[in-house]
């Protein structure tokens, strides 16, 4: 019996370069688009953008390749995270970046494509500030609930609205309104959410394979002597990476203990010489992130062989209503 295959992609800003490189290698080894292999693809923040790129018909009815998404980061990252001399002062009272360049990039990349073009079930995370609740975009709900269909650009903007970096994204559905921010505030590694959703979708299946692509493990060490006197301003620059890393590592612990689930965590343990920062878009760091990711891929070639051997059997089930143009 085939297993249900799930792909989950972490958040991490410009460090989305890392999973883009990893997924490009997996796709090359499989010789087919990733949506043909996975029964569900989930993503948070930068991982949500990648999931939307490889999982919808955003490129003239076809998905983007992971390598094309890599080029998106390299070419558009410097304009999205555009710093100027006033940025340090501005971020104390306003979002660090204007959303204009991000929105222009997403519009150029996704155009007017709608979520209903999903080629396999997609789960994209966000968080609603108004309701104080997680908000998941689920493409597989559209067939029964058409008001779950939105422009892909809106979903990409909502999932990547990292607090302190970009303002929230306003979303309306009928009489309901939402103020959405980056899903990384609670599910930066979306593996557990993706597994739970797959369990619900494919309730009669027994075996699951979850491939989790990370954006690199931050090696920051914050000493007590440094943090003990922090107030609001002190924590302002550290709280986002702290909570994103903590929830990711908690998910790793939980996923490794699940029965009936093979969990593969593809995570660069040390990003050096690349930066840990989500918004370091200097030419040197963009090059370093690619080098670190490619070195990592080379170092786990045997593990990738084993993973791809399982993935080559294809999706474990068919899901009615999902497919090209569904």
Report on the architecture of this protein.
The protein is 40% helix and 15% strand. With 326 residues, it is an alpha/beta fold. The chain is globular, with a radius of gyration of 19 Å. It starts with a strand and ends in a 15-residue tail after the last helix.
Order of helices and strands: EHEHHHHEEHEEHHEHHHEHH
Oligomer: single chain
Strand fraction: 5-15%
Portion in helices: 40-55%
Mean pLDDT: 90
- Please give the largest β-sheet: 8 strands, mixed
DSSP strand count: 8
Radius of gyration: 19 Å
Number of helices: 13
Category from helices, strands and their pairing: alpha/beta
Dominant shape: globular
Calculate the terminal CA-CA distance, rounded to whole Å. 26 Å
Q: Spans with pLDDT under 50 lasting ≥5 residues? A: 321-326
Give a brief description.
This protein has 326 residues and is an alpha/beta fold.
Primary descriptors:
326 residues, alpha/beta, 15% strand, eight-stranded mixed beta sheet, disordered C terminus, globular, 13 helices
Question: How do the helices and strands line up, and which of them pair or pack?
Answer:
Layout: E1 4-9, H1 17-30, E2 40-44, H2 46-55, H3 66-80, H4 87-90, H5 100-110, E3 122-128, E4 133-138, H6 152-159, E5 169-173, E6 176-182, H7 184-187, H8 191-201, E7 208-213, H9 224-227, H10 232-236, H11 239-255, E8 261-266, H12 283-299, H13 301-311
Parallel strand pairs: 1-2, 1-7, 2-3, 7-8
Antiparallel strand pairs: 3-4, 3-6, 5-6
Helix pairs in contact: 1-3, 1-12, 2-6, 3-5, 5-6
């Amino acid at each position: 019996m085939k297993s249900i295959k799930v792909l989950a992609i972490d958040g991490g800003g410009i460090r989305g370069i890392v999973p883009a490189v990893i997924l490009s290698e997996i796709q090359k080894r499989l010789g087919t688009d990733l949506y043909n292999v996975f029964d569900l693809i989930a993503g948070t923040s930068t991982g949500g953008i990648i999931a939307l790129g490889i999982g919808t018909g955003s490129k003239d009815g076809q998905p983007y390749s992971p390598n094309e998404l890599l080029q998106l980061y390299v070419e558009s990252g410097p304009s999205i995270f555009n710093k100027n001399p006033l940025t340090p002062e501005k971020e104390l009272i306003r979002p660090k970046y204007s959303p204009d360049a991000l929105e222009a990039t997403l519009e150029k990349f996704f155009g007017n494509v709608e979520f209903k073009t999903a080629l396999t079930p997609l789960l994209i995370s966000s968080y609603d500030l108004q309701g104080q609740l997680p908000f998941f975009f689920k493409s597989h709900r559209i067939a029964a609930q058409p008001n779950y269909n939105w422009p892909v650009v809106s979903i990409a903007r909502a999932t990547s609205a990292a607090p302190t970096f970009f303002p929230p994204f306003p979303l309306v559905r009928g009489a309901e309104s939402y103020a959405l921010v980056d899903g990384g505030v609670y599910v930066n590694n979306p593996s557990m959410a993706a597994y739970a959703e797959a369990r619900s979708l494919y309730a009669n299946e027994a075996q699951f394979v979850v491939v989790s692509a990370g954006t690199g493990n931050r090696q920051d060490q914050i000493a007590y002597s440094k943090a003990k006197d922090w107030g609001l301003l002190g924590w302002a620059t550290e709280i986002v990476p702290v909570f994103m890393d903590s929830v990711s590592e908690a998910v790793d612990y939980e996923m490794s203990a699940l029965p009936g689930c093979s969990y593969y965590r593809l995570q660069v343990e040390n990003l050096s010489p690349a930066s840990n920062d989500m918004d370091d878009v200097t030419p040197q760091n963009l090059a370093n992130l690619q080098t670190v990711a490619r070195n990592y891929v080379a170092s786990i070639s045997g593990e990738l062989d084993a993973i791809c051997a399982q993935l080559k059997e294809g999706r474990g089930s068919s899901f009615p209503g999902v497919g090209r143009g569904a």
